[in-house]
Specification:
The chain is an alpha+beta fold. It has helices at residues 5-22, 86-89, 95-100, 111-120, 126-147, 154-176, 186-196, 201-209, 219-236, 251-262, 271-283, 291-299, 306-325; strands at residues 28-32, 46-54, 62-68, 71-79, 103-107. It has a 5-stranded mixed β-sheet with strand order 3-4-2-1-5, covered by helices on one side.
Amino acid sequence: MRITRDMLLRTARETAQKRAFDDPSLVAAYLTGSLRSENPFLGDSTDVDIVFIHPDTPPLRRELVALTPNVHLDILHVPQSDYAKPRELRLNPWLGPELYDPLPLLVSGHFFEFVQAGVRDKFNDPESILTRARTSCTHARQIWSGLQADSRTGPDLLLAYLKSIVHAVNAVSLSVNGKPLAERRLLLQFPIHAEEAGKPELADALLELLGAGNLDMDGEMLSACLAAWEQDFTLAAGTPGVEPRISMIRLNYYKLACQAMLEGESPHTILWPLLLTWTYSARSLPAAQRKTWESTCLGMGLLGSGFTEKLDSLDRFLDVIEEMLEEEPS
């Protein structure tokens, strides 16, 4: 059966209605993420991002529900208190863009009227746009600074490095597009936003930060990495304490997207989702079971002696973005 965007929008509404029937205390629910775009599919896979707002702190934070092998619900449960100060949320790099234009699925009282009145007020003012971008860039710099004397090793160290990178690239995206980058499409979208920001050189610099220049990143090499990634992802999924995104429900969500990118004009665009989820998987595996991940990252300069050079490159990457954001809004 062919899955369409309209079918998934209907599923999102029906899910909200059923949850509200089962739990009348729900305050609101809204749709966000890729399904808000006209083409949410990448490699014939996608997810349906729904946020349920509860009057109190919910016992479960995140919930994944399979719809088909390639499509799933990604449900976030949050307390109403997270939305108590909408004028502050307006300047939040993540929640601000999300709340500016979600698709309401369930409305109780005047929740969306209250929240969106505060979020939308001056949201598109140049000063607000720059504040969100600068906040993201500041987070990136703070993480980079902490990495200078970080005693962590292996996956924990690399995840911190990747977190700094994603905040940095989102600072660029927020400054020109108003939204943070989608996880699977990060390397597909970033060159466009770097060009719009007048800093096209950042696109190649980002690939270097992710180790693309340290190995011969042809399709055959990347296909071998993807096969090793799948093995580790499968081993890690469901282990105690694993990052929620490392779930068998999401295996095809990542795998099919990466395969589609491998078959496209820019195979290296799989590097972000591949590295991020592979590193999360490796963190949950015994050291003896993450040898392929480790040797690959060593070869890419993302661990070991090459990591210091990557940190220096990240410093220069951040310098360019910080200089770009220093200008006063017009």
